[in-house]
Amino acid sequence: MRGIHVYILIAAAILLLVSANGMNQYWMHVSIMAMVYSILTSSWSLLAGYAGLFSLGHMAFASIGGYTSALLVEWFGIPIALGMVAGIAVCCLLGAFIGWVCLRMSGPYLAIFTLGFSEIVRITFSTEDDVTGGMAGLHTKPIFEDASRLPYFYTAFVLLAVSLALMGLLVRSRWGLFLRALREDEQAAAASGVAVARFRILAFAIASGFAGLAGGFYAHYIGVLTPGIGALDYMALLVVMTVIGGMERLPTAVGGAIVVEFLLEILRGYGQWRLPLFGIILLLTMRFARNGLLTPLWIRFVRLGEGRIAAAPAVAEVQREDSRA
Amino acid sequence: MNERQTLMHGVGLSKRFGGILANDTVDLTVAEGDLIGLIGPNGSGKTTLINLLTGHMKPDGGEVMLRGQPTGGQPAHMYAAMGVARTFQLTQLFARMTVLENLLVPALTRPRSTWAEASRRARGYLEFLNLAHLANLDAKNLSGGQQKLLELARCLMLEPAVLFLDEPFAGVHPQLRDELIKRIQELHQAGRTFVVVDHDMESILRISQRLVVMARGRKIADGPPAEVRADQAVLAAYAGL
After folding, report:
1. Which residue of A has its CA nearest to B157?
2. Which residue range is the domain that position B67 belongs to?
3. Would B71 be classed as within a structural domain?
4. In chain A, what residues touch B97 (CB-CB under 8 Å)?
């Protein structure tokens, strides 16, 4: 018997899909971008929140996925879906390589290393303008010739749903348990029989693959790909979304992406001042609710319908989450 | 010489940190069913020896044999898979995971393990160590003594051939220390092999069948506790006599 929250989520998803046709093009674009960011935040949460590998190279992998797919489609005329799969494969391989190179790094060392990697990727894409179009951008083939954004909305929804289902299976499996053990204490994990190196490399490969998927879809949706996608400000936005939502759970990381993306649009009238506002929210989150603003809400939502008796553990869990802050 | 089978054999183990020789050609044999107390002053190389024997450090010289086979520089998780379990000087738990999850991690690394069987075994060990009522609490919320017990339980989930306990009694309330000693003795009587490092001489002498003493990176005595306590080299190392 599944919790009532599962049925609520399914009903909300069906309602969203049915009513999507009535959405105006502007908000549909915002929704599509929120779903692209959701794939990125949830996969970054897998890496940073579950495995404790605080990489700042996630957007670089998104750009690699995007450029790989766009260029292969342009050069060889392969179907876009195949180009995106190739982008995912390249990101998985490169992610595994980066994971292997920084096996002995953690914390600030890992962050700085991956930031360096991300800058190398960005500068390479912007310098090699013969191939990538440089800062002028690379014109990419659209997935749908139709001018409407509706097919993109449905595609983004399916990609997000499939990504979350796969990542959900992973985090609920024994591998998910091992990743969390790595985050807590690598030496103790090794003493418990966890193959630390293998799981670190695996975490990088899988998370990078999902970043490549998001990048590939973005490339063929937006039409023009620039090296800016891999820049530090986009990575910072990703961190803000994930941390504000809650980086140790996939649904809260997705919630963070949706809330921040929509708030950014709703507050557009405030111009650049909305960005410091998110900075302040981030600071307050880190100070008072380190596990994210949405985590306590998500825990309460998951426990809906369990009745008064069963609510006690839920409260205990919320208190435990709060005490982690 | 007893007829028990040799489980582990550290042969001429050496480890250097910069100018300090932390272990200097140390030999240590651990036989099946042993309960060895490993003692020595601070900085004598006890923890380094445990790190070498459990794969957490690679020796600069010598080698570790397990059941007669050289382990050949395998990573630490392979030692765990081969039945070598350890605790740490400063307790190292998975702090933000529940007590039960702490035990599921080692159990699920075993081939052909299942969640149901791992949970059943974990709950059994939690009962044995009086931690069952804390199963769903985050490990960081346990007291120091309870954390030591949980670390022992985590080792037991590997169904190990030999357990290395690094200062299990340090900072533990006397009542919980007695509980820990009782459990170690029960496990030993049930056939488990232990190497216990500690500074608490009273506790070590209560449980050990064999005492190994280290000083300045070398093994200076190895034998029955009564003999070792009278050894002049040991007295000199401890009291400067």
Report:
1. A192
2. 6-90+161-239
3. yes
4. 177, 180-181, 184
- The answer as to whether B137 is a domain residue is no
Least CA distance to B110: which residue of chain A? A193
Q: Dump pLDDT digits (tens) for B152-190.
A: 999 999 999 999 999 988 888 888 888 889 989 999 999
Cβ-contact B119, B134 below 8 angstroms = no
pLDDT tens digit sequence for A140-156: 999 998 778 999 999 99
Predicted structure pTM score: 0.89
Q: What's the residue count for chain B?
A: 241
Q: Which residues of A touch B157 (CB under 8 A)?
A: 192
Give chain B positions within 8 Å (CB) of A187: 56, 76, 88, 92
**Sign (positive/negative) of CA torsion B179, B184, B185, B187?**
positive
Instruction: Report ipTM (2 d.p.).
Output: 0.91
DSSP 8-state code for residue B98 = B
List the CATH number of the domain containing B29.
Answer: 3.40.50.300
Chain A CA closest to residue B156: A192
Two tokens at B43? 């900085």
Paired residues of A224 in beta bridges? A139
Cα–Cα distance measured from residue B158 to residue B80, given in angstroms and rounded to the nearest whole number = 7
Residues B145, B85, B223, CA angle at the centre, nearest 5°? 90
CB proximity list for A10: less than 8 A, separation 6 or greater: none
